[in-house]
Design brief:
This protein is α/β, with parallel strands linked by helices and about 350 residues long. The protein is built from 14 helices and 12 strands. The strands form 2 sheets. It has a 6-stranded parallel β-sheet, sandwiched between helices. The chain has a 6-stranded parallel β-sheet with strand order 9-8-7-10-11-12, with helices on both faces. Helix 1 crosses helix 14 and helix 10 crosses helix 13. The protein is globular.
């Protein structure tokens, strides 16, 4: 990483509860030497459930007004150079214009996709504000054409891992410590339930699944055979990777992904990565040397069986994958520094 970047006062507006990936990014900006203050949007909103869903789909009214008032008050009192917005689905055009009038720059960082076919239902407010940010961080190839055609200022960055959370297992860790065979940690998006069930029941592979929402798609009998736990975050997620001989990663096609966030985290944790083949994954990791890829359930099953039976090759690929993730800067610090270096020169209007 370069060291000539100017140091800023950054107000970081996002979901900043412990374990949130936006909290990791907020911490990374501090590590880069900036003076950072967090603005936790979550403290102004209902917690999860129907009330939260309603606010996301109808971002108006007293709750949204209170978020924006509090943000502008914080910016007025602290006077940052920059407000970094992480998935700003509640911020109004008026608030962004107020920041701009006061000479404060703004960045929009959003891991999810407001324009893909998945239609999450929470993007109405964000779409109104797109032209008001000084810089957009985009994370998928499909956005390059969109943002170029719309003439929006953007920089392409990678989904990134958190180096203080995603790191290799202790020295001496071996296959004897891995009690999960073919493991998937995550949600039952798209065709993953059927895909995973084929791996287990058609091919007889030792499947282990952890994550939320599986009781909604699998029967109690299937759950009892393959699901070992619910949502795993933080240290529990890292240790699940450590305890897995093979870690699966899928693309969310309705979100137009070309790289799975888990691919970065798994390799950073020194895990063996078996991921869906894509141009993005192939650009980040050399196939069969730093990670292994599949394009069908048959290919996935064949490769899983081979590498379960060849632990030495598996260890070598996992170690090479971690070296690549570290050397290529797939971490929060490097990717956020790329974004900050792409910001246009500030134009104070005070």
């Amino acid at each position: 990483m370069g060291h000539s970047m100017k140091k800023r006062r950054i107000l970081y507006a996002g979901y900043l509860d412990p374990g949130e990936t936006s909290k990791y990014r907020c911490d990374a900006l501090s590590r880069l030497g900036h003076e950072v203050r967090g603005f936790n949007v979550q403290q102004y909103l209902p917690r999860w459930g129907k009330a939260r869903a309603v606010v996301e789909r109808m971002p108006a009214g007293p709750l949204i007004a209170s978020v924006n008032r509090a943000l502008l008050r914080e910016a007025s009192e602290w006077q940052p150079d920059l407000v970094w917005f992480d998935k700003p689905i509640y911020i109004t055009p008026r608030s962004l214009r107020r920041l701009k009038v006061n000479g404060i720059q703004t960045v929009c960082y959003n891991q999810d996709n407001p324009f893909g076919p998945r239609e999450d239902g929470c993007w109405r407010q964000l779409r109104k504000t797109l032209r008001l940010f000084d810089l957009h961080c985009i994370l998928r190839e499909s956005d390059i054409q969109r943002y170029s055609e719309w003439r929006l200022p953007f920089v392409k960055v990678l989904l990134s891992y958190e180096p203080t959370m995603h790191f290799a297992p202790p020295e001496g860790w071996s296959d004897a410590d891995r009690d999960r065979g073919l493991a998937y940690t995550g949600s039952p998006h798209e065709d993953r339930p059927a895909f995973l069930l084929q791996l287990a029941e058609r091919y007889g592979l030792p499947l282990s699944v952890a994550g939320p929402k599986w009781p909604k798609v699998w029967s109690p009998e299937i759950l009892s055979r393959y699901v070992t736990g619910g949502f795993l975050g933080g240290e529990a997620y890292r240790e699940a990777i450590w305890h897995s001989r093979i870690n699966l990663a899928f693309l969310t096609h309705l979100n137009e992904e070309d790289i799975a966030h888990k691919a970065m985290e798994i390799t950073a944790c020194g895990g063996f990565l078996l991921a869906e083949r894509s141009a993005g994954h192939s650009a980040c990791f050399e196939e069969d040397r730093e990670a292994v890829f599949f394009s069908s359930v048959d290919e996935c099953a064949a490769k899983a069986r081979y590498y379960l039976d060849h632990p030495l090759e598996r260890e070598q690929i996992a170690a090479a994958g971690r070296r690549r993730a570290v050397a290529s800067g797939y971490n929060n610090d490097t990717q956020l520094e790329i974004a900050l270096n792409a910001l246009p020169a500030s134009q104070s209007v005070n």
